[in-house]
Design goal:
The protein has 8 domains: 13-49 and 59-92, no CATH class; 103-277 and 353-376, Rossmann fold; 385-495, Translation factors (Elongation Factor Tu (Ef-tu), domain 3), CATH 2.40.30.10; 507-573, Alpha-Beta Plaits (2-Layer Sandwich); 580-719, Ribosomal Protein S5, domain 2 (2-Layer Sandwich), CATH 3.30.230; 725-787, Alpha-Beta Plaits, CATH 3.30.70; 836-861 and 876-972, ATPase, nucleotide binding domain (Nucleotidyltransferase, domain 5, 2-Layer Sandwich); 998-1174, 3-Layer(aba) Sandwich (Hexokinase, domain 1), CATH 3.40.367. It has 37 helices and 51 strands. The strands form 11 sheets. Strands 18-17-23-14-15-22-19-20 form an 8-stranded antiparallel sheet. A 7-stranded mixed sheet has the order 2-3-1-4-5-11-6, sandwiched between helices. Strands 29, 34, 35, 36, 37 and 38 form a 6-stranded antiparallel sheet that branches. α2 (34-48) crosses α4 (64-75) and α27 packs across α37. The radius of gyration is 36 Å and the shape is globular. 44% of the residues are buried. GO terms for molecular function: ATP binding; D-glucose binding; glucokinase activity; GTP binding; GTPase activity; translation elongation factor activity. This is Elongation factor EF-G.
Length: 1203
């Protein structure tokens, strides 16, 4: 290090500050040795003496403590403008700006890998060792800080990277060369793969991180494909060598066999697993050790004697090109610098990938990786970039990284980052960019002015005045799309655009209120602008807002961001499929619309016929408009109106209105409410009246003709069939082809062809129902990309048609029953709206997250005879009308009293006179005794809630508190047959020969816990009562040796003295059972799924996850068998809960583990006969809350009994 001397007397005050700081007279966290103080004093003395040259190398050579000391010294300098100017210059220079470094000392790199391979952990170490951050923090760290690059709250909460983040730093290599490095840290989850895509598009090189345990995984394949697409040179870092089960040589082998890379080790490990101590550089023949505070001390020693032979053998394998081969022939002892130059040549040419080793978490191997980035990866000037001159018919032109040439850059990302507003990330390829400069968006030819130029350090920004070739900056004031080329207007050049993969998953999203709708619209507009793979559309058939993206996690993250960042209450669900209706037979129509009301009447008659389009006609239309037809607009193309009237039976000016009347009917068919297609409407004749005929009359005549004749054509339901090209850069890995093809067949699809493109890749083409294609995504474990195109509408199987019809009828009934806009005006009474036998009720469903409340008007049906009974035992026939609904975060409700006070003040239909007659029923996750909350786990501050006291205080007629599963049991009578999926038909209650005085129905739901409850209906009086059960707390009884081992494991894992059924069947059981089986298989438990959805999502693809799910379902099956014997539930058993929903397909399969536990665990024919006689159904309530439905049912009974 260079030592500078004090030259002038004006330096004395500042040196005094430093001396006092170092001597302990000023606050300082650790003592500094004399050498450290001398170096810092000398360095800052040089700056404060007015030197025009700042030695960046000196700064970067200081260790962590010295830099910290210098920064603290700067903060306590006297308020002298000249000194502050020098300090600012120091900060600008030393805080990792490019400064005067030439272009060949700049590196633009991305860090990419499969999820959980250690990308963000590695980036954190890079920033620490380059002095960019003060200390290291971990993902989901215990200090609550988290990694620097995971700046979003959701990223730190979930422990995954969601969005790419940019930073910059400076590194001085072992050879004392300074480099400026721009870094983009990218996500690893397949759902956020577009963040990797657009980052690699603008980077010159990349570090591919590979886990030494998982080796080459699905997203590793995707990242490799993206790097090849954009011709990005890479170096490979095999991480986690400190972990048990790490296999760096297996990882190297898979890099060659699975990815087809020419890769070789440039390092060998010093030790393995928990004995991993460092690496040996085979190029320079030296061992690297990482010691001191968090590995800051990087020391080199001679190669251990036992590794010398391995190092030499590895060195000889690095026979990279002809020049190097010739050197090896002359002398095997090729100099290190010559070998490094050969590695650099071949790496930049993408003919070789140097492989380095280390453990980012243990702070080993990161500094040599930084040296390798500087030595082997290209600078912006080493890459060859080209564009297209649009003024010369898109002639190919070479882009030169020269700041004196016209500006050319690519906007590759847009992001809202308060307080800066919308930032546009820009890579400068040619020319320079200055603050206030105007640029031209080549897509729209719109000229816009830059307001600010910013350098990004994760979520932090620093304003700069200009940027040159190779720089990556953020701009404010631009409104451009991702992937757009920008120029200064002097040239009309464009670059190749981003590859935007097609979305694979869609969800419906809906707001809870009009206010939420406005917030949701703003959020969707922003996210759509930021992420081109996030598609927002409105289904014209179902009127739902549909969001589409790269996976369920991708969409759920956006939904959660809407809730958090915009405070909007939104819900997501499976989108309704765009079914269509058609006829199978020709059917005539002859309809007269006639209406006389005293004055001018209405008259119009139409005759003709409907007929289905032939297959050839449909195919001709699809071919003609290929690329334009989608499931949402297909009806427009596939319905033909034909006018065959020759005379003047109907004046020509009315024909257009007849067609309009027919087409309006076609928008909503009678079977499913879906549009009608594949139809020809032929108008053959009719009549008109000189006075009474009008456009309105003939439009009504057409509508009447449709309603009259459509059912006569044997109507049927059509489903959209998609053509699927399962691609992996136009391919799918060959070893996944069989699994994919079998999945397509099982999911009612048809494989239409396959083509082996390489030894590693196969193209698979198929077609199948659109609602089935998403479930195939797991079949290939995330490998590959989906390409889905609309093919045609085809007739749905008869059984499926009946199910769809029932769902439509049920949905229409519910929509009619829960009409949200039917609000009682303040000046009208309840009786005037609902009749004399009507009442207001409040129903509530309270959970740990949300408090849902509804105000409803209930009344006895008109055909219900008044028996004069004031008992609730009579089964009431009722009508229910939703008046108002609200959902509040439970955490924002200090008590049930405050929640109800807020709700009743907001509800538009309530006034003080009506409050005294309102019955309120609320279900809570608690024990309820004497209408008082005795114990509540999720909302502890609601303990001792007293329903009677709150009713008296608020002036309500009655408040009834129910345990949440008791409330859910009250929802059983509200279930419709179409909401049930049969697991065991048993003997229906109307056919059962029983003399039991009461009929029992049982509800069981594995979710966060295992809830159980039962509903009892007395035969004689029809009196109904519901009860929660503690049956899930029955002790678990092992049935074989493995289950005895499981019993011991659970006791130790949970720290409980007694294992109960709930411990092994509820949601938390799935990851615990996965750990049990993973431990038996000798797997690293840290790499196993941590949540129930993750475990269930890997069913049939991960052996230990499959075993875990099967065991949980087998034990649940035994519990169902026990309930059959305990209750003899002639009314049936009903299964609900998230666990059942996520494993539904495997549960329903013949021979499933649940069926095994249900039918084959009692070992007695009579007992098993009781089980087989019991109806067992899975509830598929389409998002309807059983707890809310039960609260409505209970409140309705109580309210009508009071009339």
């Amino acid at each position: 290090m260079r030592i500078f001397f004090i030259e002038t007397a004006v330096d004395a005050p500042y040196i005094s500050v430093l001396i006092r700081l170092a001597s302990g007279n000023m606050a300082f966290p650790h003592k500094a040795d004399a050498r450290l103080v001398t170096e810092v004093v000398a360095f800052l003395a040089n700056l404060s003496s007015g030197s025009t040259y700042c030695d960046i190398g000196t700064w970067t050579a200081l260790d962590f403590g010295a830099r910290d000391l210098a920064r603290r010294a700067l903060k306590v300098f006297p308020a002298d403008l000249a000194v502050h100017e020098q300090c600012n210059r120091l900060l600008k220079r030393c805080f990792s700006t490019r400064g005067n470094l030439p272009l060949d000392r700049v590196r633009n790199i991305g860090i990419s890998a499969h999820v959980d391979s250690g990308k963000t952990t590695l980036t954190e170490r890079v920033l620490f060792y380059t002095g960019r951050i003060e200390d290291i923090h971990e993902i989901q760290g215990s200090d609550g800080v988290g990694c620097k690059m995971d700046h979003m709250e959701l990223e730190r909460e979930k422990g995954i990277t969601i969005t790419s983040a940019a930073t910059y730093c400076q590194w001085t290599t072992k050879d004392k060369d300074d480099y400026h490095i721009n870094i983009i840290d990218t996500p690893g989850h397949v759902d956020f793969t577009f963040e990797v895509e657009r980052s690699l598009r603008v980077l010159d090189g990349a570090v591919m991180v590979v886990c030494a345990i998982g080796c080459v995984q699905s997203q590793t394949v995707t990242v490799d494909r993206q790097m090849q697409r954009y011709e990005v040179p890479r170096i490979i870092f095999i991480n986690k060598l400190d972990r048990y089960g790490s296999e760096p040589y297996t990882a190297l082998k898979q890099l060659k066999t699975k990815l087809g890379l020419c890769a070789a080790l440039t390092q060998v490990p010093l030790g393995a697993e928990d004995k991993f101590a460092g690496v040996v550089d085979v190029v320079r023949r030296e061992a690297h050790h990482f010691e001191g505070y968090k590995g800051l001390s990087w020391n080199t020693t001679e190669v251990p004697a036992k590794l010398v032979e391995q190092v030499e053998e590895t060195r000889k394998d690095s026979n990279l090109d002809d020049d190097l081969a010739e050197s090896f022939l002359v002398d095997e002892n090729v100099p290190a610098d010559e070998l490094e130059r050969a590695i650099r040549r071949q790496t930049i040419a993408r003919k070789f990938c140097p492989v380095l080793l280390g453990s980012a978490y243990k702070n080993k191997g990161v500094q040599p990786l930084l040296d390798a980035v500087c030595k082997y990866l290209p600078s912006p000037g080493d890459r060859t970039y080209s564009g297209y001159d649009q003024s010369r018919n898109a002639e190919r032109v070479e882009i030169t990284p020269d700041e004196k040439k016209p500006f050319l850059g690519m906007a590759f990302k847009s992001q809202d980052l308060p307080p800066n507003g919308t930032l546009t990330y820009m890579r400068v390829y040619q020319g320079s960019l200055k603050k206030g400069q105007s640029v031209v968006d080549t897509k729209t030819n719109k000229r816009q002015s830059l307001k600010k130029l910013l350098r990004l350090h994760s979520s932090e920004t620093r304003e700069v005045t200009s940027a040159g070739p190779g720089d990556i900056v953020a701009c404010t004031g631009l409104d451009v799309f991702s992937g757009v080329t920008c120029t200064d207007g002097k040239i009309n050049w464009t670059m190749s655009p981003l590859h935007i993969p097609a979305p694979v998953v869609s969800l419906s999203i809906s707001p809870a209120s009009r206010e939420d709708s406005t917030k949701m619209a703003k959020a969707l507009a922003r996210f759509k602008r930021e992420d081109p793979t996030f598609i927002v559309s409105t289904d014209p058939g179902t009127k739902e807002t549909i969001v589409s993206g790269m996976g369920e996690l991708h969409l759920f993250i956006y939904a959660e961001r809407i809730r958090r960042e915009y405070n909007a209450n939104v819900t997501t669900g499976e989108p309704r499929v765009n079914f269509r209706e058609a006829i199978n037979e020709r059917v005539p129509f002859d309809y007269t619309h006639k209406r006389q009301s005293g004055g001018r009447g209405q008259y119009g008659k139409v005759t003709g016929y409907f007929e289905p389009l032939s297959y050839d006609e449909v195919q001709e239309i699809l071919t003609k408009y290929q690329g334009e037809i989608t499931p949402m607009n297909a009806s427009k193309y596939l319905t033909i109106f034909q006018n065959n009237i020759r005379g003047n039976e109907i004046p020509k000016n009315f024909i257009a209105y007849i067609e309009k009347g027919f087409r309006e009917c076609l928008e909503e068919g009678p079977l499913t409410g879906s549009a009608v297609c594949n139809l020809r409407i032929v108008l053959e004749g009719g009549k008109h009246h000189e006075v009474d005929s009008s456009e309105v009359a003939f439009k009504a005549a057409a509508q009447g003709a449709f309603e009259q004749a459509f059912y006569g054509g044997s109507p049927t339901i059509l489903q959209p069939v998609m053509v699927r090209a399962q691609e992996c850069g136009s391919t799918v890995p060959t070893d996944k082809t069989g699994s994919l093809m079998s999945g397509i067949t099982v999911r009612k699809g048809l494989v239409t062809g396959s083509e082996a493109l390489t030894d590693l890749d196969t193209l698979v083409r198929a077609k199948g129902p659109s609602e089935e294609h998403v479930r195939l995504h797991n079949r290939v474990e995330g490998h590959g990309e989906w390409a889905m195109d609309f093919h045609a509408y085809e007739e749905m199987p008869a059984d499926d048609q009946e199910s769809v019809k029932k769902q439509y009828v049920q949905r229409r009934a519910r929509e009619k029953k829960l009409e949200e806009h039917a609000v009682i005006p303040r000046n009208r009474s309840i009786e005037s709206v609902g009749g004399p036998d009507s009442a207001l009720i409040i129903a509530g469903d309270i959970g740990g997250t949300n408090c849902r409340l509804r105000l409803l008007l209930v009344s006895k049906a008109a055909d219900k005879k008044d028996t004069g009974s004031d008992s609730e035992s009579e089964e009431p026939k009722t009508k229910t009308q939703l008046l108002y609904a609200a959902k509040y975060p439970t955490a924002s409700c200090p008590s049930l009293e405050e929640a109800l006070t807020r709700f009743t003040s907001e509800a538009p239909a309530l006034d003080e006179a009506e409050m005294s007659n309102v019955v309120c029923v609320v279900g809570l996750p608690s024990d309820v005794k004497n209408n008082r909350v005795a114990r509540i786990a999720n909302i502890p501050h609601w303990v001792d809630t007293d329903g009677d006291a709150i009713a008296e205080k608020l002036g309500l007629g009655k408040i009834v508190l129910l345990n949440d599963f008791e409330s859910a049991c009250w929802g059983i009578p509200m279930l419709d047959e179409s909401e049930l999926i049969c697991l065991n038909s048993g003997i229906p209650i109307n056919k059962a020969r029983t003399s039991a005085p009461a009929i029992t129905s049982v509800l069981i739901g594995p979710g966060t816990g295992l809830g159980e409850g039962y509903l009892v209906t007395a035969r004689a009086t029809n009196h109904v009562s519901a009860h929660a059960s503690e049956g899930a707390w029955v002790s678990f009884a092992p049935q074989d040796e493995e289950e005895f081992e499981l019993l011991k494991f659970v006791k130790k894992d949970l720290g409980v003295p007694r294992v109960v059924v709930e411990h092994l069947t509820a949601g938390p059981a799935l990851p615990m059972l996965t750990r049990f089986y993973g431990q038996k298989e000798g797997m690293d438990l840290a790499d196993l799924p941590k949540t129930a959805p993750e475990v269930a999502g890997k069913y049939a693809t991960c052996p230990v996850c499959t075993k875990a799910c099967d065991k949980a379902m087998e034990i649940l099956g035994r519990e169902l068998a026990f309930l059959c014997l305990k209750f003899k539930p002639q009314g049936g058993i009903f299964l609900i809960g998230n666990v059942v929903d996520s494993l539904r397909d495997s549960i329903l399969a013949e021979g499933s583990s649940l069926r095994k536990g249900l039918f084959h665990s009692l070992y007695h024919p009579i007992l098993e006969g009781i089980v087989r006689d019991t109806p067992i159904n899975i509830v598929d309530a389409n998002g309807v809350s059983m707890g809310m439905e039960g609260a409505i049912n209970r409140a309705t009974r109580l309210a009508l009994a009071r009339l």
